[in-house]
Structure formats: C-alpha cells, structure tokens
Amino acid sequence: LLAIGVTVVYKSMGMMNVAHANTVMLSAFATLMLYNATNSLVIACIVGIVVMGCFGFLLERFIYRRVNYDSFTNLMLATIGMQIILVNAARAIWGVDPYSFPQIFSIRPITIGPIRILPQSIGIICVAAVVVIILQCFYKFTKTGQSMTAAATSPKAAMMLGINVAKTRNLTFTISAILACVSAILISPMYNVYPD
Q: Among residues 169, 124, 179, which one has the least CA distance to residue 5?
C-alpha cells in the first residue's frame, strides 16, 4: 500500500514524493488522536481517512501547485522540505516517545500444521488486494480515472482535449494521502507510532 501511494503520484506527475512515508506517520498520529477522543476505532479510521484526504488535497493545492511541475528538481526539493516540516511538527506536538496503536485484528496466530500466520498479515494482504482492484477499476472504467491517466501520459495533450490537469493532479494527491492513511491504520498496530 505504501508503494501504491508513491507510484500513484510518480505515474501521474513524474515526481518522487519522498514525504509519503511522513504522511503515513501523520496519518497514524491523526487516527490515534481521533481514537483517543472518540474511543471508537471504526469512527477514528473513517474520520482519519477523510481528514488525510483533505490534507492531501490542501497540500497539492497550496504547496506543490506553486512549484513548477515541469521541474523534477524543484518538486523533489519541495517534498524533501515537506518531509522535514512534518517530522519536526510531529516531534513538537507529540514528542519523541512511541505510542501504541489499538489492534484491528486478533493477535492470536492462525496455526495450519507447522505454519503460524498472524491475522494482521492476512488482513493487510486482503485489504491491499481490494485496494489494487478498486484502483484498477477506477483508472480503467471511470471518466475521471481515464482523464487522470491521459493527464499523466501527456499533460499538454490532455489540456488540449479539455481535461483539467490541475484537478487531476489534486485528485492524485488526495488518493495518495488516503492510501497513506489506510497503510498507517494497517501497519501501526504491528509497530509503535513515533515521529520519524
């Protein structure tokens, strides 16, 4: 899921979003704080996904859009700068101590003969498979997905065809941030959440 989030941005814009892992970190903290506030993991996850989608939307709209998309170097520097900002902001807000994340799946391993598998691992594989199928259907069978593919292939040609390239880029970052949040929700119970 982490790789999918990075690939979505790279394929759509030709930029390497090095701050994607930090978006995952921010997603984990946001969902954890929502869980502490609501005491409901389901509500925290749903609201966390919505919040991070909005974060991706605003990040592209007010930060990356002001950088020249034709310059790979400028975009790389912008994402490195965002990475530094997110890490230091997280350390300032939550400190450097690790936080435990609530379990989504059972921690009791499933035993099949000599093999022991954690339900968490099965859950991650299943969710990743569902996300891949949904994204494939979205890009192949929806007008918006096809517009995003066209804009990624040739932004200038897409603009000549009447496709709003700025909108497709914005949607790309929104999807990437949502995938980051889903990744954070799935992997955080296996590790402690800390700003890094």
A: 179
